[in-house]
Design goal:
Mean pLDDT: 92
Distance between the termini: 58 Å
Strand content: under 5%
Number of helices: 1
Low-confidence stretches: none
Order of helices and strands: H
Largest sheet: none
Radius of gyration: 17 Å
Number of strands: 0
Shape: rod-shaped
Length: about 40
């Protein structure tokens, strides 16, 4: 049981990290596009 909980926590942590990274990349790409449009 404890092993399953630890595994679940690890999976959730990995998912959160991936979502966070994707969000940062999305923001950076969007900013670059906005800068290009302003030109």
């Amino acid at each position: 049981m404890a092993v399953a909980l630890a595994w679940l926590c690890q999976c959730l942590g990995n998912l959160l990290m991936r979502i966070h990274m994707l969000g940062l990349i999305f923001r950076l790409t969007r900013r670059k596009k906005d800068k290009q449009k302003s030109r």
